[in-house]
């Protein structure tokens, strides 16, 4: 059974309409491309706070963390 896991990092949560539209498109794409029958795709949408993802680097220090390391 295919599983599509979506990670969304943002301040505002996704609306129900946005999630529903994404789910419809995902079902259609999985059916068209992979032949996944309707009802077989599992979809999980997780919302991350920006400070739980790369938003941690947006502290304005302009230092090494924001630029990355070339080791």
Task: Summarize this structure as a short list of keywords or feature phrases.
two-stranded parallel sheet, alpha+beta, 20% strand, elongated, Macrophage Migration Inhibitory Factor, 71 residues
Tell me what you see in this structure:
The protein has a single domain (3-58), classed as Macrophage Migration Inhibitory Factor (2-Layer Sandwich). The chain has two helices and two strands, in the order βαβα. It has helices at 16-34, 64-67; strands at residues 3-9, 42-48. Strands 1-2 form a two-stranded parallel ribbon. The termini are far apart. The mean pLDDT is 85.
- Strand order, biggest sheet? 1-2
Overall strand count: 2
The helix content is 25-40%
* Coarse shape: elongated
Return Rg in Å. 17 Å
**Through-space gap between termini:** 41 Å
CATH H-level superfamily title: Macrophage Migration Inhibitory Factor
The biggest beta sheet is recorded as: 2 strands, parallel
Number of domains: 1
- Quote the CATH topology: Macrophage Migration Inhibitory Factor
Query: On the 0-100 scale, what is the average pLDDT?
Result: 85
- Total helices: the number is 2
CATH architecture: 2-Layer Sandwich
Uncertain spans: none
SSE layout:
Blueprint: E1 3-9, H1 16-34, E2 42-48, H2 64-67
Parallel strand pairs: 1-2
What does this entry show, briefly?
By secondary structure, this protein is of the alpha+beta class. Helices cover 32% and strands 20% of the residues.
């Amino acid at each position: 059974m295919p599983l599509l896991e979506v990670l969304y990092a943002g301040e505002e949560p996704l609306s129900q309409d946005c999630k529903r539209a994404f789910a419809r498109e995902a079902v259609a794409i999985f059916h068209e491309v992979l032949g996944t029958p309707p009802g077989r795709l599992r979809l999980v949408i997780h919302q991350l706070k920006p400070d739980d993802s790369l938003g941690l680097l947006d502290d304005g220090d302009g230092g090494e963390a924001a630029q990355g390391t070339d080791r």
